[in-house]
Amino acid sequence: MVVLGIETSCDDTGVAVYDSAKGLLTNRFSSQIEIHRLYGGVVPELAARDHIRKVIPLVMSVLEDCGLEASDIDSVAYTAGPGLVGALLVGATVGRSLAMALSIPSIGVHHMEGHLLSPMLENEFPEYPFLSLLVSGGHSMLVDVRSPGCYRLLGQTRDDAVGEAFDKFAKVLGLPYPGGPSIEKIAKFGSKRRFRFPRPMARHKSFDFSFSGLKTHASLEAAKHAMDEETRCDLAFAFQEAAVGALIIKCKFALEHTGYRSLVVAGGVGANQLLRKQIQELMHSLNGKAYFPSLQLCTDNGAMIAYAGFLRLRTGNRESLSYEVWPRWSLESLPPIPL
Ligand code: AMP
Ligand code: MG
What we know:
Elements: E1 2-7, E2 12-19, E3 23-31, H1 33-37, H2 44-65, E4 75-81, H3 85-102, E5 106-110, H4 111-117, E6 130-135, E7 140-147, E8 150-156, H5 162-172, H6 179-187, H7 212-223, H8 229-258, E9 262-266, H9 273-285, E10 289-291, H10 295-298, H11 302-314
Parallel strand pairs: 1-4, 4-5, 6-9, 9-10
Antiparallel strand pairs: 1-2, 2-3, 6-7, 7-8
């Protein structure tokens, strides 16, 4: 089955083609970073308008990449939620219309299910069940992935997502958006000794995260000092240590709780080298294994949507001509996928 996957839930337009016999054929995306940089965060209306401009040309170019005609596609999968409603509607409308024009089935995919299943597109992938840490600009979640379609949300952020906290604190430091890479870059030059920020929720016996207190604490500390280059680097260092430290504490707790020894890290913050290093060390100490999907599959992309869509379409999941998007949508409400 050849599935076209379309992702437009936030600020990346992603389109990919997955062939169940050959694997992932092509995966392209167009980032909106330059559009939102001016505002220091994602502006929903601008995001939706840019998806409108980009999605059809991307569909054409992925088909060209793999030498396919539109008529070679067997089904279409698009992100139906959660996400920004205007952005979701673009992918859903294009995906659904394409399927109708080609008389093929389509399916609305849960964005987080796409992320959870994305490691299966890599050469080296974990066996079920495994623990997944999803850390992006919009989410911070720990999910018990028991089998395809069967997910238990162990914990999530009670306020800001970790990527969002990086973005907001970077703004305080006068660094460009997206904040995560900007903070990571200068944290290398920061001193270990000057500042130490608390690890949020560390002693809380739950798997939930909280990052807005850390952001406020760090911002108040920043306001006490003249913002020279050295101070900026020292603050970035302390912020990164605390944010990553908080993620590690909860991962360790969840691994102890579930007894799992495979941990997948997905989402944009998964690019952070300190997080990767500390996760590797944690899994090594537990005799387990960490899985980091490649950056192309880690951030928002059409490939994971095509793959999750394929698993559900394969079992005969179909939708009617009318379609809906779900800006809020619980992962746990999804039906299991029969193997
Ligand atoms: P996503 O929401 O998956 O598209 O990822 C974007 C988010 O990841 C933004 O909030 C970025 O600031 C964050 N991010 C990207 N790279 C890094 C990094 N190296 N360290 C920390 N956060 C990052
Ligand atoms: Mg994104």
